[in-house]
Task: structure prediction
Amino acid sequence: MTGDEITAMRALAHPMRLRILSLLTGTAMSAAEVARELGLTHANASYHLRLLADADELVVDGEEKIRGGVAKRYRYPHERDLTPPEAGAPARTGAPTGYLRALGKDLERRSRSRVPASQGLSSDLEGWVDEATWEEALELVTRAARLLHERNRPPRTEGTVHVSATTLAFRMHDGGDGADGTRR
Result:
């Protein structure tokens, strides 16, 4: 594992930073705006934003002058995660364990905010399908994720509803439970 991969893994292994990535999908925001929305101190928001930017998980999407200073506006570049790698490019590696743990913790938080009796979906499968079915399902899931990311808006924008959508879809080794295909 390279130093860049370790930096990214550490940056993503924190529930608050996952919330920041989700928040910054819909709009570019400054540290002060992130702090207000998530109930953080400005210093804490700045710290998390710097870690995510250093790990190449956020991009600077402009600057604005505020009270004689300059505030960077960050955004999450979701489009690169929803674009298949070019032919010959290395495939993206799987989600690191720390990220999955942080995601699980954040999903618990999100589920406590679910509107009772609202329409939604919960689905899980570890199964076997033919290649064409897998490719079709992956295309549909990718289209849905792209749609939600592209149409995500700043928090509390008039006419919007607060939603949660999480997808993990990947091929597994045929022989077992471990990464090397062995039963564990």
Notes: The radius of gyration is 18 Å. The first helix runs from residue 3 to 12. The longest strand covers residues 59-66.
